[in-house]
Design a protein that fits this description.
Rossmann fold, 6-stranded mixed β-sheet, about 35% helix, globular, binds adenosine-5'-diphosphate
C-alpha cells in the first residue's frame, strides 16, 4: 500500500501546489483526477522521487519513499507527462538500453523480455522503426513498455492520454487496463472518461487538496436522482447559475444544456437525468 501523509509543497515563487495531502492507495488502478494546475504532477513527481516535499511523509510497503529514494526507484515504473524519446533510436534498441540500466544484464533474458514487452504494447512489428517516427499513441505505448521493465510494484502514469486522438486513447486505455491488479497503478488525468473507464478507486484534487475520495460507482450512485437538466438560451447561463446549484453548462447539438444539483424536483422545465462521474467532478471542483 502507498501511504501519503500530510504532504505539503510550496514552490519558490510562492505557489502552494500541495496543501497537507493525505491519501492511502491500495493495489489496482487508482485515478487521480483534477483540473490543470491542481497539483497532480507535483504529487506524482514527489512520489516518483523526482522532487522533494517541504513536509509530510510517503511510505510504500516498508519503504520510506522520501528518505530511501533508491529503494522506491527499484520498484517504480514511471511514465512522465512529458515523455521525451531519442528520435534516432529504435524502440527495440531503447528498451534493451533501459533494461540494461535497470540491471537486466543477461542478454538472452533481456531479449525475451524486450520481445514480450513489444508484443504486449502492440509495437512488435514497429520495433525497428526510429522512435522519432512514432505517432503520439505509439510513443505513449512505448512509454508503458519502458515503465514495465523490471516488474514494478508501483506504476505512475501522468496525463498519458493528453494529445492522443480518440482511437489512440482507447487503445492506450485498453493496454493500461491489462496491467496487473496486483500492483499499485496511479493514473493522473484531467479526463473524467479515463477514470470512469479504468479505475475502481479515485480521488479528485483541486487547489492542492483532496476534495473527494471514493469508488467512482459509489460516488455516482450517491448522486442519483439529484441531477436535473434542461435546455436554455445561450445567454441565460449566468441567470441559472445564480438561481440554482449549477454543475455544468454545456453545448449539445448546438443548444445550451444546464445540469443542476437539487434534492427535489426544481420544476421550471427541468427533468431528472442519470448522474455521471462528470457531474461529480464538476460539482466538486467549482
Ligand atoms: P497539474 O499537474 O495538476 O496540472 P502541477 O502540479 O503541474 O498541477 O502544478 C500545480 C501548481 O504549481 C500550478 O499552479 C503550477 O503553476 C505550479 N507549479 C508547478 N511546477 C512549478 C515549478 N517548477 N515552479 C513553480 N510553480 C510550479
Amino acid at each position: 500500500m502507498l501511504r501519503i501523509s500530510n504532504l505539503s509543497k510550496t514552490y519558490p515563487n510562492g505557489v502552494q501546489a500541495l496543501k497537507n495531502i493525505s491519501l492511502e492507495i491500495s493495489n489496482g488502478m487508482f485515478g487521480l483526477l483534477g483540473p490543470n494546475g491542481a497539483g497532480k504532477s507535483t504529487l506524482m513527481r514527489t512520489i516518483a522521487t523526482l522532487q522533494d516535499a517541504d513536509s509530510g511523509s510517503i511510505t510504500f510497503g516498508d519503504i520510506d519513499v522520501l528518505k530511501d529514494k533508491p529503494a522506491l526507484r527499484r520498484v517504480l515504473g514511471y511514465l512522465p507527462q512529458e515523455f521525451g524519446v531519442y528520435p534516432k533510436v529504435s524502440a527495440e534498441e531503447m528498451l534493451h538500453y533501459i533494461a540494461n540500466l535497470k540491471g537486466i544484464t543477461n542478454t538472452a533474458e533481456r531479449r525475451e523480455l524486450v520481445k514480450a514487452l513489444l508484443e504486449q504494447v502492440n509495437l512488435y512489428e514497429h520495433r525497428n522503426k526510429h522512435l522519432g517516427g512514432y505517432s503520439g499513441g505509439m510513443k505513449q505505448r512505448f512509454g508503458i513498455a519502458q515503465a514495465l521493465i523490471g516488474n514494478p510494484k508501483l506504476v505512475i502514469v501522468d496525463e498519458p492520454t493528453a494529445g492522443l486522438d480518440p482511437a489512440e486513447r482507447l487503445r492506450f486505455n485498453n493496454l493500461l487496463s491489462e496491467i496487473g491488479e496486483n500492483i499499485v497503478v496511479i493514473l493522473s488525468t484531467h479526463l473524467v472518461e479515463d477514470v470512469n473507464e479504468l479505475c475502481r478507486d479515485m480521488a479528485i484534487i483541486a487547489g492542492g487538496t483532496v476534495v473527494l475520495r471514493g469508488n467512482p460507482e459509489d460516488l455516482v450512485h450517491g448522486m442519483e436522482h439529484k441531477i436535473w437538466s434542461r435546455k436554455i438560451g445561450k445567454d441565460e447561463v449566468a441567470a441559472y447559475r445564480e438561481r440554482y446549484r449549477l454543475v455544468l453548462a454545456k453545448l449539445s447539438g448546438g443548444a445550451m444544456v444546464v445540469y443542476i444539483l437539487s434534492d427535489e424536483d426544481p420544476g421550471d422545465g427541468f427533468r431528472s437525468v442519470r448522474a455521471t462521474l462528470e457531474d461529480i467532478y464538476f460539482s466538486n471542483i467549482n
